[in-house]
Amino acid sequence: MAAYPEIGLFIDGKWVSPPGAARFTTRNPTNGSIIGSFVSATPKDVDAAVTAAFSAFPHWKATPPPARGEILLRVAQTLKDRKEQIGRIVTQEMGKVIAEGRGDVQESIDFVEYMAGEGRRLFGETVPSELRSKFCLTVRQPKGVVACITPWNFPTAIPNWKIAAALICGNTVVFKPASNTAMCAIEVVKAYEAGGVPAGVLNCVTGAGSTVGNALIDDRRVRAVSFTGGVETGRSVYERGARDLKAVHLELGGKNPMIVMDDANLPLALEGLLFGAFGTAGQRCTATSRLILHEKVYDEFLGMLDQRVARLRLGDPLDPRTDVGPVASADQERKILEYISVGRTEAKLRVGGGKLTGGIYDQGFFIAPTIFETAHGTRISKEEIFGPVLSVIKVPSYEEAVRVANDVDYGLSSAIYTRDVNVAFRAVQDLECGITYINAPTIGAEVQLPFGGVKNTGTGGREAGSVAVEEFTEIKTVFIDFSNRLQKAQIDVADSG
């Protein structure tokens, strides 16, 4: 008997473990202990999940949206009731500190509740006709079976962003989570099960993206794909989906700048930078990975930063005193250390620069918060690292700060610290990104506002906020002619009296 839970697939309202199925385990990045064992799904399992979702779609589509919203409210209540337990699972399986583990679940709760309210909105438009005795309007309709493919860094929040929005619109879902946070995904599915989502409306298949993800995207019954992850994988998802003209929504990477001007509140900017750069060990698509610092405050601010980074506490993420936990996996550790090696050859290492060793550090994947002083254009200043690594770039002016901020392949989040209201409003217009913060760090999105970016950060719209439903609905235009005669638009206007 295994000392850890063995979890099956969730298909058509049942937890199933196909006989003889291959399995994989997830591990705690702090100490290597096994969290759980999960089925490595096959294309046959994916077919069963899509079949269940396809069969459940007509009934779920016909369910009144406010009734769907009532189910989502029960899901949110389940998440509330189990917030502490699930938050600890997030911390144990992914490695973010416990306050952020709870925050991951709280974001899930907030968004599911917000989407429940969309059940009484799902707005269309009524518009005037150019003809007499004619009524024109639009309505929203679900797309059908939706594939939701999610990453490991927000292992409950991002799945809920996708699942709750898809379900309130009347779609059915096949959910493929990241393999190294599979237990967090299972907790999400259990909340929907407890909330009363009908059989087949939500299905979950675990396993490798090359097997499960590709089979899911290639199934012609899947009409939309919502993917969050890396750029190269996202490009592959986009290309595969295009073969069948599927709707594909991509949320990908970021290389987010924080500009600190010479008139900034430096203590405030310092607090924002520490949270933005080293919160979640830098493993956020919105993490502050570039500090663009005005030359007049460059030395002063870096001196302040050195002192604060030296006081950051790294260790067990379940300890509430810990500021920074481990990175999520051995693979993550390897990739980040490779970038640090690159940085040593092309930039000046100021702080950190390697794996921590000794005691608890030897059991897990701990990397010291690392700061490089670099010129713009180096690899570490332009490529996404996704770890606790900050590049600092000196600039002489606002104009150069904006040029540097925009001169990357990404455009997700940005921040500027300044006391000049005119500069702040210029930045809102000038920064090429989907999100701009004024006097706040690049992280901290709120669920009632759209989330997403431009350039290689993604395509297909935005998640969260009232626009979340746009990803998962089709617009139908309706013309109602009660003139009792044939009227021809653009032709009959002159003689329509």
Write structural notes for this entry:
The chain folds into two domains: 6-252 and 457-477, Aldehyde Dehydrogenase, Chain A, domain 1, CATH 3.40.605.10; 256-438, 3-Layer(aba) Sandwich (Aldehyde Dehydrogenase, Chain A, domain 2). Helix 3 crosses helix 4 (98-118). With 497 residues, the chain is α/β, with parallel strands linked by helices. The strands form six sheets. The protein has a seven-stranded mixed beta sheet with strand order 15-16-17-14-13-19-20, sandwiched between helices. A six-stranded mixed beta sheet has the order 10-9-8-11-12-22, with helices on both faces. A three-stranded mixed beta sheet has the order 1-5-4, with helices on one face. Strand 9, helix 6 (182-195) and strand 10 (202-204) form a beta-alpha-beta unit. The chain has helices spanning 43-62, 65-81, 83-94, 98-118, 157-168, 182-195, 209-218, 231-243, 266-278, 298-310, 330-346, 379-382, 398-406, 421-430, 468-471, and strands at 6-7, 9-11, 14-16, 23-27, 34-39, 126-127, 134-142, 145-149, 172-176, 202-204, 222-228, 247-251, 256-260, 288-294, 348-351, 370-373, 389-395, 410-411, 413-417, 435-438, 454-455, 458-459, 473-481.
